[in-house]
């Protein structure tokens, strides 16, 4: 079982703490979403895990060992940090062949990952002719090359087309299903909600949350019920009798906060109120995330006063 362990990790750039006494563990068999506003320290943490930067203090290990101590590291950790990193004058296939050779990975894996990432037909083209999405796929192919137990991807959906986004979702779920440790940073909340089991959230270099995704949402966003009727007066008074406030929306539907469909459905039925619509609206990851990080954002968009 290989986990990523980050212990009291701190990285200072001059007087700025990019990462500030950070401690968390990324466990196998799960997809962990790595979230945080711009500048929160996600990429720095990933770079420290990969030994691309030295921590000011603390440690980051993979399976109990620092990354630089791993022999043939691509067989243990696959990472996509910067999709522009591949040499533009090499072909996609050559790029992967060089990586494979330096980590004693059999050449057949090159063709396997090219097929898996949908790049087989452009494998002999130079990387500089690749679109952003193709480069992203090549970076993911490189990360998968050594069949690593740990996969770390920084914004993998960046530049991918809709088919690619569906593909990456399925890929991440499969990798976790195979028992691998999967850490994925993203700013796309709907995307993250579609593949993550667990979340690690940073703000200004510090840990804000380390929790299963469902718990993260449920702790911050109350569920509500969406409802529509032909008899507004009767419904409103039935709800009021049971202490429920309704919020009326422009297109004719209402929402009842802190409520469950079972209760509202029974209540409407007992009062003989006809319903056209009755649905549970669960809190979204985006709502929960914004609730948590509202005060932690270094760069917020200011609305200009007239
Ligand atoms: N090489 C560097 N030199 C100086 N400061 C740096 C360096 N790398 C990162 N920083 C600073 O460290 C902080 C964390 O940056 P980092 O790129 O890790 O954030 P992030 O969470 O990945 O952000 P984003 O979501 O925008 O990618 C930022 O304030 C950034 O300006």
Automatic annotation (TrEMBL):
It comes from the Bacteria. One of its GO terms (molecular function) is ATP binding. Residues 4-229 form the ABC transporter domain. Keywords: ATP-binding, Nucleotide-binding, Transport. The keyword Transmembrane helix does not apply. It holds the Pfam family ABC_tran. InterPro entries: AAA+_ATPase (IPR003593), ABC_transporter-like_ATP-bd (IPR003439), ABC_transporter-like_CS (IPR017871), P-loop_NTPase (IPR027417). Signal peptide: none annotated. The keyword ATP-binding applies. Belongs to the ABC transporter superfamily. This is ATP-binding cassette domain-containing protein. It comes from Streptomyces coacervatus. The lineage of its organism: Bacteria, Bacillati, Actinomycetota, Actinomycetes, Kitasatosporales.
